[in-house]
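Morning F.,

Quick status update on the modeling queue. The single chain you submitted on Monday has been processed. Sequence for confirmation:
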Amino acid sequence: MKRQQLTIWVSAILAILFLFIVLVFQVRQTEIAVVTTFGQITRSITEPGGYFRWPWPIQKVYKFDRRLQNFESRFDQVTTSDGRSLTVSIFSGWRIQEPRLFQQRFKGSLIRAKDNLEDLVRNAQASVLAKYKFQDLVSTNRSNLKLKQIESEVLAAVRSDSQVQGFGIAVELLGFKRIGLPESITAKVFDRMKAERQKEVSRLESEGESEAIRIRAEADRQRQQILAEANAQATIIIGQGEAEAARYYQVFQQNPELAIFLMEMETLEGSLKDRTTLILDQQTAPFHRFKQVLDLQSEPQGQTTQPTTGNP
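Structure tokens below.
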């Protein structure tokens, strides 16, 4: 009896589990889903959790990845408003926003969705870039570039077209991955860019030369000013020196013998300060002063001789 009851309980639990698996399904945090009843979409689910359904073939559940999907377009040649050709590649990030529309449009296929999105991107970039000039995308001057503005316009166009056509997706970001030039015009573009660079170099050289001229002129002005101040100061010093010399000349005029004696002493000092050996006549001025000194040393003690200040 107990064994029969255990069998019944186990069977009941298994039946409940089977019904749970068949009638309940789970939507994860990274998923969204649609439920079809006899092939017709009857419900879309965008929140995670457990949900009830009727078993197949009455109802069927389609689940989609709700995370951000990346997309990169192939290189495509476009023409700018001034007739220049460019090759561009665009990247974008999108996610499924309305699972009901996505299922109706693409039957749940991400590959079909990417192919259709690429067509939208190609049309949008061609129409937007046709309004801009070549220098708005390729230029040596950053201030001329309008890449952010162009990317915003292309993104707005793709979003609008995807909503009109009922893709059920949300394009969240878009930008240029690569911008290139056709081989036929690459050399011409490089030559033009080189010419622009050379023009900028010439402008900078001209500005540098003008600045150099200004600096040299300012330096010459300061040099002239310094020289003028120095000459004025030298003139003042020379005048003071001449005035001081004139005062000494007045003293020498009053006592010419003292002036001659001082000049002779200065000459002797200048000629003997380097331990010089001289052989000269004792009568030659100013060396005759040595003879006077010797005469004084040879005189007897107690006898004084008045030194003469003139020539012997």
